[in-house]
Design goal:
Largest interface: A-B, 41 and 41 residues
Order of helices and strands of chain A: EHEHEHEHEEHEHHEHEHEHEHH
Distance between the termini of chain A: 31 Å
Oligomer: homodimer
Radius of gyration of chain A: 20 Å
Helix content of chain A: 25-40%
Strand order of the largest sheet of chain A: 7-8-6-9-10-11
Structural class of chain A: alpha/beta
Shape of chain A: globular
Number of strands of chain A: 11
Chain lengths: 333, 333
């Protein structure tokens, strides 16, 4: 559990693309994003107040979150200076970088001396159980995809936002680095030991009120041969009551696998549903979330209408056109 | 890679059940099993020569394999004495125990001083790649099961033995601790990090001669919610050309999951085949391997005949009645 609120460290980000994590926090947890910290040469700007460490402290910030990718795979001396100072000022640090903060001797030493925490969200901090498959109270919705990186995290976040706006009980459950930094907790599923994958998702989505929904961030795809095992652990550990099928229509082949075509929406719907019903016989597919970012608005709308006609369930781009249709469907379960 | 041949350490095994690993080595790699080492109070006997460390050395043994479960989860002082002596005599040690040899300071110190290796096969010794899904040469057969522990390892080992007897090119590929100790190498798949599961199986079953078969040891079941992700990584990383469906007909529920019924053979056949064809469109199911150990011989034969009639493919208990039918089917691919 990472303490909030945050100061978002942008370092010397060359552009906005490098600041993906910080953008996610600003967009989805604006109440955590008190300000940004930019160094000389930073070309990213979140539109948040630029705060010094002292100013952030005065505003109650608890954690400095590295919201930017690092260049060349190293934590530069210029970054290091700020990070050390932040620890000394009493902030925790949180990072999803491949280089772990804890592997930097100076950061580790200062954190120990000051009693601050280093949160490396890429590695599990919990000893997860083996899944027991026992039915849990409360409800769960899982985003499954035709491929990796088709918008599963954004779909779950959009649905959570819409549900909260309707005063429904809803919690986004992060299963990847960005999601964990956005919400302050979650399971870095790709880094979990094989035997404990499904158990980690049971742990992440425990018993809850009967009308509470977990919106579980999906990972990979049952049709992506590199990561399908991770996806199936989500399907079985998550025990979903509802599935949303996510898709990006302009992709020429599976991400990172030039020889592999994307499956159809029908294939993902049928395969995921049959497997999900092993853990929860009442599971249903409620609709389709289509990432239309590479399509003109009219084309996108036509495409969505075509899916609704052909497959008989709601289809939307939840980020572009809202998640209302999907939440309407959830509300009926 | 564990150096062979082996001296099989039985310690103070209370009974034969505790010596499962040693029995597996004796049965499946008799050429590695030069002798056994038994301590006072040992109630297991493999029918192999009892050898002192010196005698084993003279016979060319390279590795002392712990072929027995330990009591109470500790490596006892009595065991330790033998293990230290074995290192000093120039043997490597190999173990599938949960307690790692390398975590015992005295064993670690002696191994370093003598230059010997400690093989803890429960933990990966290799940095596996992420799966790339590229089609590999040679052929692969994977055992998939209705449940855990239904005989997938034995099925693959029986098929390998039969194929070698027919001078077919065949290699059993171990994916669990027992299999790794039997053959001297493999992937401890349940201990691999999620993102690298499928890649570890690609690594285990590399390009090979066109008429060479890998017989891949299965793990878990697509229908076992605790471990299904591990199974799907095998299905996609293994790129099988052939699947054998394994089953144990007397089981009342999924292993460790009292609320879960076993799937039917048809369900496993159809689900596994559809998923396998994502990685290899030519994959086929060649038959059924039934573990009939809890059935009378006549009942077993009737059951197998019924499956063949109903499902139209060969069915056998490969351990009890031979793997010939399955190998006949493989030979046609």
């Amino acid at each position: 559990m990472i303490e909030t609120p945050y100061l978002l460290f942008l370092g010397d980000a060359p552009d906005m693309l490098a600041a993906k994590v910080a953008i996610g926090i600003r967009d989805w947890r604006p109440e955590y994003a008190v300000g940004q910290f930019r160094m000389d040469g930073c070309n990213a700007d979140l539109g948040l107040p630029d705060l010094s460490l002292q100013e952030a402290k005065a505003k109650g910030v608890k954690t400095l979150v590295i919201g930017v990718a690092n260049r060349g795979g190293i934590i530069s001396p210029a970054w290091k200076k700020v990070l050390v100072q932040a620890l000394e000022e009493g902030f925790d640090l949180a990072s999803g970088l491949h280089n772990l903060l804890r592997d930097e001797p100076d950061l580790k030493a200062v954190a120990e001396a000051t009693g601050r925490s280093l949160h490396d969200v890429r590695v599990p901090a919990v000893k997860y159980p083996i899944a027991n498959g026992i039915k849990r109270s409360g409800k769960r919705c899982l985003a499954v995809g035709t491929d990796c990186s088709v918008g599963k995290m954004y779909t779950a976040l959009c649905m959570e936002k819409e549900m909260r706006a309707r005063a429904m009980k809803a919690t986004f459950r992060a299963t990847g680095q960005t999601g964990i930094l956005i919400t302050g907790n979650g399971v870095p599923l790709d880094a979990v030991i094989a035997d404990f994958m499904a158990g980690s998702i049971e742990w992440l989505t425990p018993d809850n009120e009967a009308d509470h929904w977990d919106l579980i961030e999906g990972q990979g795809s049952l049709y992506h041969v590199s990561y399908s095992g991770v996806t199936l652990a989500l399907v079985h550990g998550g025990q979903p009551d509802a599935l949303v099928v996510c898709h990006e229509p302009t992709r020429a082949h599976m991400r990172g696998l030039p020889g592999y075509q994307l499956p159809t929406l029908e294939q993902v719907r049928d395969t995921a549903l049959a497997l999900a019903r092993v853990a929860n016989p009442d599971c249903v597919v409620i609709g389709y979330a289509i990432n239309t970012q590479h399509m003109k608005e009219e084309d996108a709308k036509n495409y969505l209408a075509e899916i609704e006609r052909g497959l008989g369930l709601p289809a939307t781009d939840p980020y572009r056109f809202g998640a209302g249709k999907l939440v309407d469907a959830l509300a009926l379960i």
